[in-house]
């Protein structure tokens, strides 16, 4: 099964994560099909960048997000909706 999950990078006690699309049988930091975003939990409320077009494309193909990725996507959508539109 194809999964959208986090892959850890960064150094000891300074975590940084990439949002990757991978086979669920691969190890956490193993090979992956595509990188579609990043998450820096140390930056304020956590800086989360995601290529929403690629995420939606993988979801349509049957990929499943991990619990944390699903939570981060929901949170970012809520924040985008609450932000005032720029003119």
The figure for the number of domains is 1
- Principal-axis shape equals flat
Share of residues in helices: 25-40%
CATH level-four homologous superfamily name: Ribosomal protein S16
What is the string of SSEs from the N terminus onward? EEEEHEH
Number of helices: 2
Strand order of the largest sheet: 4-3-2-1-5
- What integer value in Å does the Rg equal? 14 Å
Mind describing the biggest β-sheet?
A: 5 strands, mixed
Q: Which runs of at least 5 residues are low in confidence (pLDDT < 50)? A: none
* Count of individual beta strands: 5
CATH class equals: Alpha Beta
CATH architecture: 2-Layer Sandwich
Intertermini distance: 42 Å
Question: Structural class of the secondary structure composition?
Answer: alpha+beta
| Beta-strand content estimate | 35-45%
How much is the average pLDDT?
88
């Amino acid at each position: 099964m194809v999964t959208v999950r986090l892959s850890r990078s960064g150094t000891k006690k300074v975590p940084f994560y990439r949002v990757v699309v991978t086979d669920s049988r691969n190890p956490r930091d193993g090979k992956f099909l595509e990188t579609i975003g990043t998450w820096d939990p140390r930056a304020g409320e956590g800086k989360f960048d995601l290529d929403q077009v690629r995420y939606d494309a993988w979801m349509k193909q049957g990929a499943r997000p991990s619990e944390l990725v699903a939570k981060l996507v929901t949170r970012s959508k809520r924040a985008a909706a609450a932000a005032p539109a720029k003119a």
